[in-house]
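Troubleshooting log. The previous run stalled partway through. Resubmitting the same two chains, unchanged.
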Amino acid sequence: MHLPKKVTICDVGPRDGLQTICTAITTAAKIKLVEGLAAAGLARVEAGSFVNPRVMPQMADSGAVLAGIIRRPGVRYRALALNARGWEQAQAAGADHLCLVVLASETFQQKNARSTVAGVMAAYAPVVTAARAQGVYVQGSVGTAFGCPYEGAIASGRILDLVRQWVDYGADEVSLADTTGMADPRQVLDLCTRVRERWPALALSLHFHNTRGLGLANVLAGLQAGVTIYDASVGGLGGCPFAPRASGNICTEDLVHMLHCLGIETGIDLEQLCQVASWLEATLGLPLSGQVMKAGPRWQTHRGGGA
Amino acid sequence: MHLPKKVTICDVGPRDGLQTICTAITTAAKIKLVEGLAAAGLARVEAGSFVNPRVMPQMADSGAVLAGIIRRPGVRYRALALNARGWEQAQAAGADHLCLVVLASETFQQKNARSTVAGVMAAYAPVVTAARAQGVYVQGSVGTAFGCPYEGAIASGRILDLVRQWVDYGADEVSLADTTGMADPRQVLDLCTRVRERWPALALSLHFHNTRGLGLANVLAGLQAGVTIYDASVGGLGGCPFAPRASGNICTEDLVHMLHCLGIETGIDLEQLCQVASWLEATLGLPLSGQVMKAGPRWQTHRGGGA
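Second attempt completed without errors. Output:
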């Protein structure tokens, strides 16, 4: 099994995780969460998003979160934006990593933003240029890359077209996002292999949801395709708007544990990360879906007796 | 990604699932569970175990369960036994598939049965012969094959030795069991590849726990090694005696969903299986960890509006 030696993880718990759960959390607690993740060794933390606060009131304090954190050298604080206005707010808040999202599904994109895929992409061109001119790292994301709950399967040609557009715009990185947990490992291996063959020098990242339990199997396929950058959410925090009882993003500790078992470096202190997850669970008063935070890593041998 | 075309699944919910949870369930409900699984297309169901009822009172009615089910042609009803006495009881109850378990970990085996690995194996030799003479399908299982909570890693040479012994005894099938959820995909691929290279004609099966979230990733590795028989538990029913909040066996519906996404046949009706899982959840009054029973399969497109 040929796998990369090192992987970079972005924790999206403070954004993708928190935005899909109903429990309120204070700005101070969000700041503590972002700082705790960076202290555990996460090289990237998605601290918030700059979107319409009427649509996404949970993220209305993203500026305050970014302003309130004590930054750690070497850590990038990512902000999500969906248009030029979002980028301006992210810039004002001092985000040094901008994630811009387009959905490959025309139906989902139009439901989400009342704009076509082509219209959204056209509006992003000057944003990428402006952000890069400010020294901000720009990631172009292709959502519903592995399937759409409205349209079903998305032709890989449409995904490759959008990747090409991000590359043409000059994005530093392109990510493929499984927005509603529809990816399977064969599809991940095939699509990532095609992208990597066509753009071998491109920084490619993957964003999986564990909605149907396939999250880490999809990461394994991504690793086999040579992809070295993944999103994940502390404690498995989050959910799925399409399935009230289903889980959201893949869990960061479970991902780190798998990678360490496979001998892949992450730079993350798993024990400290589990402490952050446990603190978060207590703070939210909500059981989280992470498994390693409950079972401990496999190298933690059993201390009690009996079997 | 080279994968098998067809996979056989044994649902171990009525045994491995139920034995690790505290909630009581009537014999009638167990019978209904076994029948429901067979009706959903499971070719094998582990209906119970014949072990010391003082140690495992949850399984004391296994004889009554096997006696009470209306059997479906083509389905095998598996019983677990740990010694000759267990085999005699399984035989009396009419089990047509016997699973005998030895633990590769000397420490764990001795804690479990007050006997050495060699002693347990020696006692199994006449049991395999007797059971096969009765036309019973015999599966020899090697537990803690991917790690032991007491001893940590288990040398692969010890696993291969035990596989060889089962083969020498004439077992119809040999399974490698990840008793406490310590396997990782690279290890699965390596060990299964070695077993299959040495015994190409052997029916090899895998039993994974999802204790640390790695269950389906390990199945993916098993598939890549060419293994076509897997255990799983309906609804993800079960737990881990070593970690109270952790999950148990991999979930049957989530496994079936992954396999169907990969184009692999199982003979199982996923929708009907999810109905069994939902009935079980309601009957036990216990939330189950299965994901597809909550989110639905990926091909079930979203019917509501909004995003």
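Takeaways: Strands of chain B lie at 8-11, 44-50, 76-81, 97-103, 137-143, 173-177, 203-207, 229-232, 239-240, 243-247. The mean pLDDT of chain B is 94.
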